[in-house]
Design brief:
Blueprint: E1 10-19, E2 22-32, E3 37-42, H1 48-55, E4 63-68, E5 71-72, H2 78-85, E6 88-91, H3 103-114, H4 119-132, H5 148-160, E7 166-170, H6 178-195, E8 198-202, H7 206-212, E9 215-220, E10 223-228, H8 230-234, H9 239-248
Parallel strand pairs: 3-8, 3-9, 6-7, 7-8
Antiparallel strand pairs: 1-2, 1-4, 4-5, 9-10
Helix pairs in contact: 3-4, 3-5, 4-5, 6-7
Bound molecules: adenosine-5'-triphosphate and magnesium ion.
Length: about 250
């Protein structure tokens, strides 16, 4: 099941989410076009992870609409939501690997569940996916036996397993050394080029985001404080945007 090309991969309008008295998102509107990578930046606790979880239907909004691959996901039941989720690769902030499965089996899991590949084909695909993130030497290790950055790379391989049209990445490069972080950034660029993949990447790395994204969105106090290219944001006169960028370049 692939998009028909005219679908807008992600379209969010007036999205609102509160937890009790706390208003986390106060009416966010955001569109991600086919082949576009949008980086979402903002302060810790600002609602970036919540935004991604809403896009994948892991949390329900209090108001507004969220269209993913042409479907209003707020109106879908669980089986319909799972169909949409197959088209979306999701990398959680904590890589969230299955603790009792090896690296190899973690990446094989979505393939076993959702495809009819033979054991041999599946194994080949898992090796390719892990090679892309430089993790093909650690196939038999358990998640507890690899470092945090390595777990993240395995999570990325798993997110890509079903060849998704849409990728949602929550801090894919946090905690990685600068070389590996740049490699992950290059991987995102290649995926976009090769597959016209659309992505939302939450990150604290402004310079990384500049390298791999088409557009930056800066969340602040539940709203979008600024949106545009790196240069647009860097030349913004908004006090918060100026402050955010001045600290980012220290
Ligand atoms: N399930 C939940 N129940 C209650 N509050 C929540 C829940 N999930 C998130 N929050 C609150 O929503 C706010 C935004 O959280 P979120 O995880 O989206 O922040 P973030 O922007 O991703 O921060 P960071 O950069 O540190 O990852 C926080 O104040 C958090 O405590
Ligand atoms: Mg977060």
């Amino acid at each position: 099941m692939k998009g028909n090309g005219s679908e807008i991969p992600i379209q969010i309008a007036d999205l609102q989410k509160s937890f009790g008295e706390q208003k986390v998102l106060k009416g966010i509107s955001l569109q991600v076009k086919s082949g576009e990578t949008v980086a979402v930046l903002g302060r810790s606790g600002g609602g970036k992870s919540v935004l991604l979880k809403l896009i994948i239907g892991l949390q329900t909004p209090d108001g507004g609409s969220i269209q993913v691959a042409g479907k209003d996901i707020t109106k879908l039941d669980e089986p319909q939501l799972n169909e949409v989720r197959k088209r979306v690769g999701f990398l959680f902030q904590q890589a969230a690997l299955y603790d009792s499965l090896t690296v190899e089996d973690n990446v094989a899991f979505p393939l076993s569940r959702h495809t009819k590949l033979s054991n041999e084909e599946r194994s080949k695909r898992v090796h390719e996916l892990l090679a892309d993130v430089g993790m093909d030497r650690d196939l038999g290790k358990m998640p507890s036996e690899i470092s945090g950055g390595m777990q993240k790379r395995v999570g990325l391989a798993r997110a890509l397993a079903l060849d998704p049209e849409i990728l949602l990445f929550d801090e894919p490069t946090a905690g990685l050394d600068p070389i590996t972080a740049a490699e992950i950034g290059d991987l995102i660029i290649n995926l976009k080029r090769k597959r016209k993949m659309s992505a939302v990447v939450v990150t604290h790395d402004v310079h990384g985001a500049n390298a791999y994204s088409d557009r930056l969105v800066l969340l602040h106090e539940g709203s979008i404080a600024a949106e545009g290219s790196f240069d647009d944001l860097q030349s913004s006169q908004d006090e918060f945007v100026k402050q955010f960028f001045s600290y980012s370049s220290r």
